[in-house]
């Protein structure tokens, strides 16, 4: 029961909260539940009293009067849907019209009252309207960890992403950060049509475009610039494509050369979010422009709860993007470890989960009169003046009763000079818990995980000496505190340690499948580094004097950090394989992903340190060098998604909203979701599904002309499988072979209480492994 309530609350938090500085890491472990609910109340009141911004879809103009080629005509077509009283006044119009979409859909965003919308519904050409939604936002060492090394391998082959343009929709960017300097960078490719809305001098050959989509429109009082105040957008941009910057560190930790995944790729920032969140009407306006500007990759570290694709502006915009060959990469969400919590579930999007790297910012805890018990923990702030040789008294904040275990503001007393144990959660951020301990005179803080988050701890910028420990460690520390009249301990700051052999691990906060909008497509697709990632930041977060005050960095966590890693890697693959479609690049990333960790055992889930399931890791952890040479690819053309959309039982109107073309499912035909030529399988065995299911897949040879692949199967629990043919023999490059897969559920499958099964189908040659994960849901 409690879990269920938690999941509900987290969805609210995810829906509303954006990121301001350190908020993100905390949001990742769902610390903000109560704050979110308060904000929800505020917004609802506000909206009751005034008009709202609506997204309105309309038909393309048909009459001779309007030519879709002309922006002006499109504008007057849109205006014709507004009430006469508005349309007849320029001033009214400027105040009401927010965005006119031109490239990827026919529609607009306008400020309207519900009555005005009802009036509009009767006009010819009207399709649908709904209020805009607010979506929340969801590195030095990671290139090395991912096997990218200067002067060799994929980085060299891909010339570090030279000539590729990555567009990000985010909180803006700090243009003069050294991560975005353009020394030695060529000018943007000739196709680039983007704009720089900073005063011109601030963009350069690295940052080739920067535009703001918040509070635009002629009626707006003042011009806004795409500067980043929150930090999130500078962080994600530099993770995707930051230049090499030496001596990057935060609190002296994680010191090294910072670099993004594609250090020579161009960047374009589309500012759609402020600290609070991102309006989907603005997101759609940015996508409408970015796709026309000429970006090659789009990276969105934001998203809300699952929606049907025809009602999800990110899914609609992404479909327009892939039609132009633009790779589309998104954060999967921070609402784990509960299942069915993903954002951005469409099969034409790459959905990215978050994992740890082998770098830990350690702060251990030693307790007992002889310091005989040691517990591992994490902290970003590593105070140098803390004397670890002196044992201090320990106290459990929970002993003060009344929910004081969460260390809410004002809840602590009599803790002077003590180390206080606080539990995560309760609507208080981890940082704020430290502030309360400090206020009450405490000397240091032990932060103990909730049971559900298990071993997933975060290194954060605490205001006092602190260590974040696992739930299991926390229980033992509590036991020790209650077992003696004079509990004692100290915190040992051991700095940055590289070499966690269990890395990568899935972070507890990383959202999990199954896919709600399309259960027949496995999501997330892959995981990538998203815990304690160092990247560019607009302001100083520590008290260390920096030799270069512009080279400021911060370390934060979230699927927001994992997504731009994959966007940068996709840019490298675009550079080495300019002819590959977005689906082909995604296939290469997925079929070569690692499912084993650094010691060669299955990747574990930090929430319980047990092997991670397929709904947490998808195909596995990205391996960029292997993705560059996948052997075989599963390709898809934009039109291949149409029978799939018919198979989702979307009606022709809904499909038209997604694809912007007239579709008749009665003529096109429908396919089951799992028949889409996707590099994974997600099938459901339930009362309404046949217990024997047949699918096909088609692979294209992008490896050596003559190659032979044999089959290896890991058949899921309670299932039978057969594949035909069992050997794939290629004699040419780009040759395609189709194979058939039959799944057979055993009698009684799903009746043993195990809710799902997993396995894989792998084609292997002497040079390549092409692995597709399989998930089977038993829905009885
Ligand atoms: C452009 O921005 C720079 C830096 O903020 C400023 O010094 C300069 O005056 C601005 N130029 C114009 C034309 O606004
Ligand atoms: C980071 O490393 C460089 C080179 O190893 C060193 O010169 C510098 O002092 C270090 N900075 C910090 C803050 O530790
Ligand atoms: C969903 O979560 C529940 C409870 O956390 C778990 O028992 C179940 O196995 C999960 N189902 C799937 C399909 O992952
Ligand atoms: C607990 O807190 C509530 C409200 O914050 C208060 O009414 C109540 O008296 C408190 N109880 C104790 C035992 O402190
Ligand atoms: C402290 O760090 C060093 C490497 O920097 C490592 O070898 C050692 O195991 C660490 N000790 C603890 C207690 O974490
Ligand atoms: C098509 O589906 C949408 C979304 O479910 C619905 O709102 C609309 O009424 C449907 N249209 C028709 C013609 O059935
Ligand atoms: C199976 O189909 C029936 C009738 O269409 C429906 O009422 C029921 O909810 C379905 N069950 C599941 C598990 O989808
Ligand atoms: C394929 O995977 C197997 C393990 O399943 C491994 O031993 C082998 O080296 C891999 N082959 C290639 C070419 O990576």
TrEMBL record:
**Where would I find the Inhibitor I9 domain in this sequence?**
53-137
A GO biological-process term: response to symbiotic bacterium
> Where in this chain does the record put each Peptidase S8/S53 domain?
161-597
Domain Subtilisin-like protease fibronectin type-III: start-end pairs: 675-776
Q: Which residues form the PA domain?
A: 393-477
Q: Localized where?
A: Secreted
Q: Which UniProt keywords apply?
A: Glycoprotein, Hydrolase, Protease, Secreted, Serine protease, Signal
| Keyword flag Coiled coil | no
| Active site as annotated | 170 (charge relay system), 232 (charge relay system), 560 (charge relay system)
The entry's family comment says: Belongs to the peptidase S8 family.
The protein's name: Inhibitor I9 domain-containing protein
What organism does the record attribute this protein to? Malus baccata
């Amino acid at each position: 029961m409690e879990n269920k309530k938690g999941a509900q609350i987290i969805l609210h938090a995810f829906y509303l909260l954006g990121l301001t500085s350190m908020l993100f890491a905390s949001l990742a472990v769902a610390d903000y539940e109560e704050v979110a609910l308060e904000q929800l109340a505020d917004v609802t009141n506000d909206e009751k009293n005034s008009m709202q911004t609506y997204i309105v879809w309309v038909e393309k103009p048909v009459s001779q009067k309007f030519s879709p080629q002309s922006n002006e005509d499109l504008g007057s077509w849109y205006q014709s849907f507004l009430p006469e009283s508005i349309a007849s006044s320029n001033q009214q119009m400027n105040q009401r019209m927010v965005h006119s979409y031109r490239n990827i859909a026919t529609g607009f965003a306008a400020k309207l009252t519900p009555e005005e919308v009802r009036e509009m519904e009767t006009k010819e050409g009207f399709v649908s309207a709904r209020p805009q939604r607010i979506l929340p936002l969801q590195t030095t060492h990671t290139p090395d960890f991912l096997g990218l090394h200067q002067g060799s391998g994929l980085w060299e082959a891909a010339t570090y992403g030279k000539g590729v343009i990555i567009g990000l929709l985010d909180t803006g960017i700090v243009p003069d950060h050294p991560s975005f300097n353009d020394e030695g960078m060529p000018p943007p490719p000739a196709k680039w049509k983007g704009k720089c809305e900073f005063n011109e001098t601030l963009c350069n050959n690295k940052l080739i475009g920067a535009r703001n989509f918040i509070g635009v429109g002629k009626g707006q009082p003042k011009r806004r610039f795409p500067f980043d105040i929150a930090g999130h957008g500078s962080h994600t941009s530099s993770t995707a494509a930051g230049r090499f910057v030496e001596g990057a560190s935060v609190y002296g930790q994680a010191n090294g050369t910072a670099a993004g995944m594609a250090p020579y790729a161009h960047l374009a920032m589309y500012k759609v979010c402020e600290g609070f969140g991102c309006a989907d009407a603005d997101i759609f306006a940015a996508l409408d422009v970015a796709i026309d500007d000429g970006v090659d990759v789009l990276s969105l570290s934001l998203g809300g709860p699952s929606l049907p694709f025809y009602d999800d502006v990110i899914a609609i915009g992404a479909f327009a993007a892939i039609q132009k060959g633009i790779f589309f990469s998104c954060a999967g969400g921070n609402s784990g470890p509960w299942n069915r919590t993903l954002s951005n579930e469409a099969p034409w999007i790459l959905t990215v989960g978050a994992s740890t790297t082998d770098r830990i910012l350690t702060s251990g805890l030693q307790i007992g009169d002889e310091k005989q018990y040691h517990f591992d923990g994490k902290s970003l702030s590593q105070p140098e003046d803390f004397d670890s040789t002196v044992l201090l008294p320990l106290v459990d904040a929970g002993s003060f009763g009344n929910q004081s275990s969460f260390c809410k503001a004002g809840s602590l007393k009599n803790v002077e000079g003590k180390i206080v144990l606080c539990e995560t959660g309760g609507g208080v951020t981890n940082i704020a818990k430290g502030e309360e301990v400090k206020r009450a005179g405490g000397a240091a803080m032990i932060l103990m995980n909730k049971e559900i988050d298990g071993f997933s701890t975060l290194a954060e910028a605490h205001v006092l000496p602190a260590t974040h420990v696992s739930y299991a460690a926390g229980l033992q520390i509590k036991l020790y505190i209650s077992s003696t009249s004079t509990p004692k301990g100290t915190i040992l700051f051991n700095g940055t340690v590289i070499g966690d052999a269990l890395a990568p691990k899935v972070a507890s906060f990383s959202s999990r499948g199954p896919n709600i909008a399309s259960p027949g497509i496995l999501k997330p697709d892959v995981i990538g580094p998203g815990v304690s990632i160092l990247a560019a930041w607009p302001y100083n977060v520590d008290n260390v004097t920096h030799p270069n005050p512009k080279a400021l960095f911060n370390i934060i966590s979230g699927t927001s950090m994992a997504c731009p890693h994959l966007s940068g890697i996709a840019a490298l693959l675009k550079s080495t394989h300019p002819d590959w479609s977005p689906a082909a690049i995604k296939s290469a990333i997925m079929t070569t992903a690692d499912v084993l960790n650094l010691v060669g055992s299955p990747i574990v889930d930090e929430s319980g340190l047990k092997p991670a399931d397929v709904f947490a890791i998808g195909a596995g952890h990205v391996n960029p060098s292997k993705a560059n040479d996948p052997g075989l690819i599963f390709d898809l053309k934009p039109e291949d998604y149409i029978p799939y959309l018919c198979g989702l039982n979307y009606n022709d109107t809904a499909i038209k909203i997604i694809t912007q073309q007239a579709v008749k499912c009665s003529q096109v035909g429908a396919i089951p979701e799992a028949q889409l030529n996707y590099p994974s399988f997600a099938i459901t065995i339930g009362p309404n599904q046949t217990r024997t299911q047949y699918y096909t897949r088609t692979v294209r040879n992008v490896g050596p002309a003559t190659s032979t692949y044999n089959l290896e199967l890991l058949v899921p629990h309670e299932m039978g499988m057969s594949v035909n043919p069992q050997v794939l023999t290629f004699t040419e490059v780009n040759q395609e072979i189709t194979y058939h897969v039959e799944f057979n559920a055993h009698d009684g499958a799903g009746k043993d209480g195990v809710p799902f099964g997993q396995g894989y189908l792998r084609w292997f040659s002497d040079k390549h492994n092409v692995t597709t994960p399989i998930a089977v849901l038993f829905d009885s």
